[in-house]
Amino acid sequence: LDDFMKLFHRVSNPDDELYTHYLTPTEVARRLPAVPASMRAAVAWLDANSLSHSVTGTGDLLRVETTVAVAEQVLGVKVEAFEHNRAARPLLRTVSPFALP
Fold this sequence. Notes:
The protein is α+β, with helices and mostly antiparallel strands. 39% of the residues lie in helices and 16% in strands.
C-alpha cells in the first residue's frame, strides 16, 4: 500500500515527471487486488440486509442499488439533498461519517 500511495502522490504532483500518468482500472486492480475475505464479508453484510448487489469493474467493486430510506436505515445515517445552480439534479450525501461493519 505504501508504494501505491507514493505513486498516487507522484501522478498527482505537477512537479513530478509521472504527473498525469494515471493507472488504468486494471492496473490499479493488479496493484491493489480485492481481498477475498473482505469481499465475502461485504457480500454477507449486503445479503443480511437484503440489499441487491453485483460485482462490477475488475471484480473489486460492489454495486448496490437501494432507496434512500433503506440506506439510511442500514447505515444509521441521514441522507441530505444538496443543490447547486449548475447541477442538473440534487446531490445526495450523508453529513455524518459511517462505516460498514
